[in-house]
């Protein structure tokens, strides 16, 4: 009697899992007791199973809006009236590439600035929609990096190293926290570029491959193609389900005989995730399921904003579904990245800001109205800033000495500005923030001591911040 009755308990559990799945909720790792893997010194039922951070966390997930090319801080969010007053005058600067002191012609911003919100934040006319969220933003106006060229600077921002192959910050965060959904990757990069660092910007390097980012779409293709590829629609055929069950049993048998079972275990985990993705991922990437009003809010259907609007809306759907780290890339597959205006800055910065302003503002509003902003850290940044002097008469050169970025939600202060550059916007002079400090702060907001989140490789422990980095406690709410 007990044997026969016990057979029914499995169907009850299955019914519960299917019910929660149909409601869009994540499935706990306890539902997959046979999915065990040893990662570093930790054993988990699934390497992507959700993990509790060791410290109190203010954020559960991250959306990184990467503005490839380096937006000009003095033309976006770092207002410099002194630079405008001295437009056309000459001043001496140490060349960012040659380190030789040179006399250069100052170039005031061609864009008007005005104050917004109760915080009175100064925002350029380039971002009228983002400006409406000024009281939700935390600006850092003193960011410094170690590199002056796009490739090394982009790698440094993503991995904490300019040349060595290191795990990206998305991989580190997924390694520490896992995913909130068994049927989706823990880390997704939307429309990444194959150049300027390429796959290393979302790779896992020496971390297990399961923590690498999954690329959706390509930089040179429209965002309408940013979908999970090779996934059938209409559910999983019974024959395929039977084949997968057989494959899983064979793999488990083989794993007990392997000298290095963790290698086969990684393959098994990838098979099982792919199997679950077939049922859930296509619906999440299908933006037609969103109301027309929501799509219009993101600028979908408008020529200037359609592409980046689709990326931002997809980022919200992925984050809401349990993906731990989502990167949205405003980039392309050229050696001259989007925001790299060595000439024609006014024309091109206007065009790029027009493409991203409305979608970013919609993302912030959407997260807020859904109650997700408080636990989602949104980061907007490029790889470096730009010079206050002109290049080619109407452009600006790379500037590693100061840049401006902003964060929202996820435990940072709202309507707050931290750090400052000099009167002309060339160097950080107050509360300097190195990229290593930024990485340490991101991990802190997610509940980690950046010195403790390590992985042993080649005989020594590695971490995202290498041997550097300090948490910026002043920006934490």
Our estimate of the beta-strand percent is 15-25%
Shape label: globular
Query: Level of helix content?
Result: 25-40%
Q: Please tally the helical runs, counting DSSP H or I stretches of 4 or more residues.
A: 11
Structural class designation: alpha/beta
Tell me the domain tally.
2
The CATH level-2 architecture of the largest domain is identified as 3-Layer(aba) Sandwich
Describe the structure.
The structure is a single chain. The protein has eleven helices and 21 strands. With 477 residues, it is of the alpha/beta class. It has two domains: 57-227 and 288-475, Alkaline Phosphatase, subunit A, CATH 3.40.720; 231-284. Strands 3, 8, 9, 10, 11, 12, 15, 16 and 19 form a nine-stranded mixed beta sheet that branches. Strand 17 (420-421) and strand 18 (428-430) form a beta hairpin. The protein is globular, with a radius of gyration of 24 Å. The termini are far apart. Residues 11-44 have low confidence and may be disordered.
Describe this protein with a few key phrases.
alpha/beta; Alkaline Phosphatase, subunit A; nine-stranded mixed β-sheet; two-stranded antiparallel ribbon; 31% helix
In short:
This protein is an alpha/beta fold and 477 residues long. It is 31% helix and 18% strand. The protein has helices at residues 2-22, 81-85, 128-131, 150-159, 169-177, 238-255, 261-284, 292-297, 306-320, 345-369, 435-445, and strands at 37-39, 42-44, 61-67, 90-94, 101-105, 113-116, 121-124, 137-144, 187-190, 214-216, 325-330, 376-381, 385-386, 398-399, 403-408, 416-418, 420-421, 428-430, 433-434, 455-457, 460-462.
